[in-house]
Design goal:
The structure is a single chain. With 315 residues, the protein is α+β, with helices and mostly antiparallel strands. It folds into four domains: 5-56, no CATH class; 64-140, no CATH class; 144-195, no CATH class; 201-313, Endonuclease, Chain A (3-Layer(aba) Sandwich), CATH 3.40.960. The chain has helices spanning 5-8, 11-16, 24-29, 34-40, 64-75, 83-89, 137-146, 151-163, 169-178, 185-195, 201-211, 257-272, 282-287, 289-305, and strands spanning 22-23, 48-51, 54-56, 80-82, 99-104, 115-120, 127-129, 132-134, 219-220, 224-226, 231-233, 237-239, 244-248, 276-280, 311-313. The strands form five sheets. Strands 9-12-13-14 form a four-stranded mixed sheet, with helices on both faces. The protein is elongated and about 85 Å long.
Length: 315
């Protein structure tokens, strides 16, 4: 193609790139001189160099998708985005930091700029989201979890995905056992908690708090029905011998009016069925555990003092 034709036909740049992201070698094939590329990518110029050999022919802030695509183009064949960037592609969170990329173990590409390269002998098949080749959700989630430094942050990340039904705890256990042991200690703790049906940060603390209360056995996240078998609710905690329910409110959950209405209605159903209900805020579990234990003991005593209502817990 005659040198300079790309200037009269800017759509040619779109044809050789993806979402505007293009290799400098492709620009050169269009007749764009290396000196022109360098000049246009200088500070304040109309283009920008995202990574070595990767250009974005615009001067605005690159989108999340453009950064992810640039990372994949830079890393080359069969590479996939993983970790928190992949979680965003799968619809979880709004992460916009460094892009973690899996490459085959024999590749020599190195981390640079916002790209963090991880070599793996367990290269997953790509799950393409939009234009971005991602690791499958279980792999992406555990790769992100391995980089977390606290149990609470890991628990919150995994709980969001599991609670939305996008992946099961069993799938995560299989993936964890198949993968590297590096960074697996905290995810392993969280998955053990989930085996006990504790699916969120406050509820995990709740389980430990109940164990300190010296109350009878409490089960978590079990369905309660009335005498006719009609569903009443699935409280966070339940002591069956006295029909006592413990409900842990979520402040994030209550930011949406529709969800708050749902919480009020389910609590009303429990109370109408004669169930004693103790609502507790997560902040109480965290900041005033002694008071919460006292509330638990008082509400249990109240439940034990009245005839047990005709409700039952499903297996």
């Amino acid at each position: 193609m005659r040198r300079g034709m790309w200037g009269q036909r800017p759509e040619l740049l779109d044809q050789v790139g993806v979402a505007g992201v293009v290799r400098t070698s492709e620009l050169e094939r269009l007749g764009v001189a290396r000196s022109t590329i360098s000049a246009r990518c200088r500070a304040g110029g109309p283009w920008q160099r995202l990574l070595p050999g990767i250009v974005l022919p615009q001067n605005g802030r690159p989108s999340f998708e453009q950064r992810a695509l640039a990372a994949l183009i830079f890393c080359g064949r069969n590479s996939v985005v993983t970790g928190r960037s992949a979680l965003r592609c799968h619809g979880f969170g709004s992460y916009s930091g460094d892009v973690d990329v899996l490459v085959e173990v024999d590749r020599r590409v190195q981390s640079t700029g916002f790209v963090k390269v991880e070599r793996t002998s367990r290269m997953p098949d790509a799950d393409v989201r939009g234009s971005v080749a991602c690791a499958p959700l279980p792999r992406a989630l555990l790769d992100a979890a391995r980089r977390c430094t606290t149990v609470d942050a890991t628990r919150a990340m995994i709980a969001e995905v599991v609670q939305r039904g996008a992946v099961t705890a069993d799938q995560l256990v299989v993936e964890l056992e198949a993968g590297s042991g590096r960074g697996s200690a905290i995810p392993r703790i969280v998955l053990r908690e989930m085996a006990a049906n504790v699916h969120s940060v406050p509820k995990a603390h709740v389980r430990r708090l109940w164990m300190s209360s010296e109350l009878p056995e409490m089960v978590f996240n079990r369905k309660i029905v009335d005498a006719a078998g009609q569903f009443i609710a699935m409280p966070d905690g339940w002591i069956d011998e006295v029909a006592f329910a413990w409900d842990i409110d979520s402040l994030d959950w209550h930011l949406a009016p529709k969800q708050y209405k749902h919480t009020v209605e389910r609590r009303t159903r429990m109370q109408n069925a004669g169930i004693i209900v103790l609502p507790t805020l997560p902040s109480g579990v965290r900041d005033i555990p002694e008071r919460v234990i006292a509330d638990l003991q008082a509400h249990f005593a109240l439940a034990a003092s009245r005839p047990r209502p005709n409700v039952r817990m499903l297996p």
